[in-house]
């Protein structure tokens, strides 16, 4: 919407925990905060209350062009192209230190804008520091090979940066999704234009200010607030962007791939949705398994691409596990994310609230048994009680589609073969988990489950060193680990004729 009075580029915010800070509101382009070319702004909502808390400047296609030009200039002619790999790594380490110093502010912003509970928001900032330090360490260890062919030639490869990278991220982990992409891209020597999700623009703008402070040259990192259909689509089809890294829904992932194909055949990596199986075998430690199952689905209000939303329990322990799991889920405390007692906040937006509630209605109409939850908590904000459906069959839509909320489906399996068959009965393939005391059973599952991650006796075992990404319609490309460096470099082969 066009603002009636021009919106300033920053504003004092006071958060529910009493924290006061200066929130940047502009687009971060070429090292500065600026208004959008079309002078548009959009509203920021606190999902805990459903109230508008402010506005930020909105990027349109014209701003994407300006940001891309700045990123391209930095890539080819600026101080970035002359900087050593070690200095690039040092900048990432410096940014990590600044995140650490600003931990409370960043986590508070995240809880405020996204609704996640404060302790979990702190965990996200902590993870971001880990990504920056891990890839800061890699920056001066990325190199090619000498390849022997014949005495008359000398051949070597170089791992070169790709150029200007576009990044489009979702709202479930706003800061984390930002830095999981920025850290490896920068380590490899790229420059970038990143668009945040329109529901959660605040933490990345604050991080942009920290990038300024860390001393990244202008144009290397550009961060835009904006919508998918305008700024996002402009990134996906931009002729000067050489690579797009996208995290979000499978529907939009397809559009990104199409836009890349129809524009300049830019490289893409897609981190999409999932419907991950969480399997409990009869020989598992049931108490511990139930804890993992609970965290696997209800962490971050169920808004995780990796959520363990299909729970399969071996028939002989099924009743016992369902009872223990219901009890555990009912102990979750919904409430203001800043309350220390809260373990679950609201869904991110009214649209997501409605979407999740419609899946709950669908589950009932499909004939699944609603064990617990299924309704709103409180009278304001977008809170949904942890919801468990049992007697769910493989053909039901709540067993097949990503719900992205605190809703899971439980079903039985007979033996290992049956569990593997059911676990793989999905178009997705992001994550999976198995609880068993048998090493052989664990190995059989890890060999046969078709998913990018198999977690044994744990869940969401994320670490900067461990690659994460999808099989099937969960996408391609890997984030984290050394594998991510492959996504942000390209191989050049040089052959010298010595004869
Ligand atoms: P979305 O996929 O529409 O949004 C993700 C990002 O893509 C946002 O930054 C958005 O602005 C951008 N975008 C949207 N349309 C675009 C386009 N045509 N071109 C370029 N960029 C575009 O996800 P949304 O609508 O926020 O959530 C809907 C559902 O998607 C969720 O209920 C969930 O099932 C799934 N989702 C999955 C995520 C994951 O991490 N796997 C994250 C977010 C959503
Ligand atoms: Mg918000």
From TrEMBL:
GO cellular component: mitochondrion
Keywords: NAD, Oxidoreductase
Pathway membership, UniProt: Alcohol metabolism; ethanol degradation; acetate from ethanol: step 2/2
Record-annotated Aldehyde dehydrogenase domain positions: 34-494
InterPro entries: Ald_DH/histidinol_DH, Ald_DH_C, Ald_DH_CS_CYS, Ald_DH_CS_GLU, Ald_DH_N, Aldehyde_DH_dom
GO function term, MF aspect, one: aldehyde dehydrogenase (NAD+) activity
Active-site residues, Swiss-Prot/TrEMBL: 271
Database matches in Pfam families: Aldedh (PF00171)
The keyword Oxidoreductase is annotated on this UniProt entry: yes
Biological-process GO terms, alphabetical: acetate biosynthetic process
UniProt keyword Oxidoreductase, yes or no: yes
Taxonomy, superkingdom: Eukaryota
Similarity remark: Belongs to the aldehyde dehydrogenase family.
Function: Minor mitochondrial aldehyde dehydrogenase isoform. Plays a role in regulation or biosynthesis of electron transport chain components. Involved in the biosynthesis of acetate during anaerobic growth on glucose.
Protein name, entry field: Aldehyde dehydrogenase 5, mitochondrial
Biological source species: Lipomyces tetrasporus
């Amino acid at each position: 919407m066009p603002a009636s009075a021009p919106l300033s580029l920053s504003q004092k915010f006071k958060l529910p925990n009493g924290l006061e800070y200066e929130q940047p509101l502009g687009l971060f382009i070429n090292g500065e905060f600026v208004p959008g070319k079309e002078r548009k702004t959009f509203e920021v909502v606190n999902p805990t209350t459903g109230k508008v808390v402010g506005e930020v400047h909105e990027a349109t296609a014209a701003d994407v062009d300006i940001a891309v030009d700045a990123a391209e200039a930095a890539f080819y002619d600026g101080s970035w192209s002359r900087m050593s790999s070690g200095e690039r790594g040092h900048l990432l380490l410096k940014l990590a230190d600044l995140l650490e110093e600003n931990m409370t502010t960043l986590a508070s912003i995240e809880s405020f804008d996204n609704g996640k509970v404060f302790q979990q928001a702190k965990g996200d900032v902590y993870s971001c520091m880990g990504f920056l330090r891990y890839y800061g360490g890699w920056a001066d260890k990325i190199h090619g090979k000498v390849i022997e062919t014949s005495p008359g030639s000398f051949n070597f490869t170089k791992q070169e940066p790709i150029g200007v990278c576009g990044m489009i991220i979702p709202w479930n982990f706003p800061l984390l999704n930002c830095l999981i992409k920025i850290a490896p891209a920068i380590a490899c020597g790229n420059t970038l234009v990143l668009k945040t999700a329109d529901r959660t623009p605040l933490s990345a703008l604050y991080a942009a200010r920290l990038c300024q402070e860390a001393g990244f040259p202008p144009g290397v990192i550009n961060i835009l607030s904006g919508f998918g259909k305008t700024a996002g689509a402009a990134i996906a089809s931009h002729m000067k962007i050489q690579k797009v890294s996208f995290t979000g829904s499978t529907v939009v992932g397809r559009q990104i791939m199409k836009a890349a194909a129809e524009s300049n055949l830019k490289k893409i990596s897609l981190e999409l949705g999932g419907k991950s199986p969480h399997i409990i075998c009869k020989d598992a430690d049931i108490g511990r398994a139930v804890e993992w199952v609970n965290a696997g689905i209800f962490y971050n209000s169920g808004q995780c691409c990796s959520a363990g939303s299909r729970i399969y329990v071996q028939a002989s322990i099924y009743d016992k596990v369902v009872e223990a799991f219901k009890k555990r889920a009912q102990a979750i405390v919904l409430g203001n994310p800043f309350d220390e007692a809260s373990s679950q906040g609201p869904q991110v937006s009214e649209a997501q609230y409605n979407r999740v509630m419609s899946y709950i209605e669908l589950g009932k109409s499909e004939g699944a048994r609603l064990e617990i939850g299924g309704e709103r908590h409180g009278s304001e904000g977008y809170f949904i009680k942890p919801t468990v459906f049992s007697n769910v069959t493989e053909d039901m839509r709540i067993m097949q589609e990503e719900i992205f909320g605190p809703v899971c489906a439980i079903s039985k399996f007979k033996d290992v073969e049956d569990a593997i068959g059911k676990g793989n009965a999905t178009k997705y393939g992001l994550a999976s988990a198995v609880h068993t005391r048998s090493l052989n059973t664990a190995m059989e599952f890890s060999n046969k489950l078709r998913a990018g991650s198999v977690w044994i006796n744990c869940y969401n075992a994320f670490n900067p060193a461990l690659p994460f990404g999808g099989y099937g319609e969960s996408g391609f490309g890997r984030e984290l680990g050394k594998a991510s460096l492959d996504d942000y470099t390209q191989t050049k082969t040089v052959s010298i004729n010595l004869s």
